[in-house]
Write a structure and sequence with these properties.
- With about 230 residues, the protein is of the alpha+beta class.
- About 40% of the residues lie in helices and about 25% in strands.
- It contains six helices and ten strands.
- The strands form two sheets. Strands 2-1-5-9-8 form a five-stranded antiparallel β-sheet, with no helix packed on it. Strands 3-4-10-6-7 form a five-stranded antiparallel β-sheet.
- Strand 1 and strand 2 form a beta hairpin.
- The chain is elongated, with a radius of gyration of 24 Å.
């Protein structure tokens, strides 16, 4: 009986430790799958203001087809999201304490820029040409922001990132495509969990309560037998 009680106690401890460990291991900020992406404050390329030609698409935008981009760009963003979410893809970050605060697609508008042949996409495709984009990311002044792009099946850092100290971040891109904005986990404001993350935590707590109940029952039965 004592061995069984010890076993249940050990299981109880393991399950209780698994709950916070699960939360700490999340790759994404919980709201990434349903919130809007960062807005573009300013964009310049080859001395020209190109803000009106660029569009940011969130995961929700890609699912709902609500932004003016090609379907292949939507599909790529959703594919990347699924792989990062299930762990089959990892960002090449030296610090594993970083989480993805925003995962979006940044593209030239299909009908507003590409098909009217403004020439922006073709110019950026040439070697060493860049576009500078300022995003309203809503980060604190001291937040270290790492920005990566997914190009030709690989994640690479953008040319440069600057936290402007007013919530905006300025990035220099050689390519625009799926973009991941990463910050250290402890710099992210806590937000309510939804969807799968909440369901998985709920399962852990149910198991925890079940094990606790089983331990209490065994203790009560054991004491009654000893009292006789």
């Amino acid at each position: 009986m004592r061995k069984l009680i010890c076993l249940l106690t050990a299981l109880l401890v393991c399950v209780s430790l698994a709950c916070p460990a699960f939360a700490a291991g999340d790759t994404f900020v919980p709201s990434i799958s349903y919130k809007d992406g960062p807005e573009i404050e300013d964009a310049e390329m080859n001395g020209e203001d190109v803000e009106d030609c660029l569009v940011v698409s969130s995961i929700t935008d890609a699912k709902n087809k609500s932004t003016d981009i090609y379907q292949e760009d939507r599909d790529l963003l959703l594919e990347v999201y699924d792989k990062l979410d299930d762990g089959s893809m990892k960002l090449p970050l030296e610090n594993d304490e970083y989480v993805i605060r925003e995962l979006v697609d940044v593209s030239f508008e299909k009908s507003g820029c590409v098909e009217p042949a403004h020439g922006h996409q073709e110019w950026l495709a040439q070697e060493s040409n860049t576009v500078t984009i300022k995003f309203d990311l809503g980060v604190a002044k001291a937040t270290d922001v790492v920005v990566m792009v997914y190009v030709n099946g690989e994640w690479t850092p953008v040319e440069s990132v600057e936290n402007n100290g007013d919530g905006t971040v300025t990035c220099v891109f050689e390519d625009i495509c799926p973009v991941a904005f990463c910050v250290e986990a402890d710099s992210v404001d806590s937000t309510p969990q939804t969807g799968d993350a909440m369901n998985q935590n709920l399962i852990l707590w149910i198991v925890l309560m079940a094990v606790s109940l089983a331990a209490i029952v065994i203790l009560v039965v054991s004491r009654r037998k000893q009292a006789r």
